[in-house]
Design brief:
Elements (H helix, E strand, L loop, with lengths): L8 E5 L2 E5 L2 H14 L6 H19 L24 E3 L2 E8 L3 E6 L4 E5 L5 E5 L26
Helix pairs in contact: 1-2
Length: 152
C-alpha cells in the first residue's frame, strides 16, 4: 500500500475501469514519487518530471481522463503549463505557475517547490541536481506571491 489509503472507489478512465482515490491520497503519492526521483538539472527537466509523475498518478487513481486542454482541473490535479509560466518577481531564473490553490516555482537549476497561495506555506520542495533549492538566498518565499493573494 502506498501512502494513507482511504479506500477509494471505482471509476473509468480511457474506457477502462480503475480504482479511484481521494485527492489528498493522490497528492501524497505524487510527493512520494517526486521524493524518490532523481533531482533535475534544468527547468525543462523539472517540468517534465512534475508533469510525467503527476499525470501518472492521476491517470492511475483519479478516474478522470487526461485532457490536453486542461479543461478538467477541478476533478483532476493538473501540472503546470510551460506557456503560462511567468518569471517570479525579483528573480528571472525562477518561473512561477499559478494553480487554483498553490504556486509552482521552478528554478533554472531544476529545483522546484509548491507553495500554498493563501498561507505561503511550502507544501513540497526538491533541490536541483546542483544541491541548491529554488531560492539560493534566505529571502522570504512569500515575496514572490502577490500580496493580495496571501492569507490573513
Amino acid at each position: 500500500m502506498r501512502g494513507r489509503d482511504p479506500g477509494g472507489g471505482v471509476g473509468r478512465a480511457g474506457g477502462r475501469e480503475i480504482s479511484t482515490r481521494e485527492r489528498g491520497w493522490r497528492l501524497g503519492e505524487f510527493f512520494r514519487l517526486l521524493r524518490e526521483s532523481e533531482p533535475a538539472s534544468s527547468f525543462e527537466e523539472a517540468l517534465r518530471q512534475i508533469t510525467d509523475l503527476l499525470n501518472q498518478v492521476e491517470d492511475e487513481y483519479s478516474g478522470v481522463p487526461f485532457d490536453p486542454n486542461y479543461g478538467n482541473c477541478d476533478d483532476r490535479m493538473c501540472p503546470p503549463v510551460a506557456e503560462s509560466m511567468k518569471p517570479a518577481p525579483g528573480d528571472p531564473r525562477v518561473l512561477r505557475h499559478r494553480h487554483k490553490g498553490h504556486y509552482t516555482f521552478i528554478g533554472a537549476n531544476g529545483a522546484f517547490e509548491f507553495v500554498a497561495v493563501r498561507t505561503g506555506e511550502v507544501q513540497f520542495f526538491k533541490r536541483g541536481a546542483d544541491g541548491q533549492e529554488v531560492w539560493n538566498d534566505a529571502r522570504d518565499r512569500t515575496a514572490s506571491i502577490p500580496p493580495q493573494k496571501r492569507g490573513p
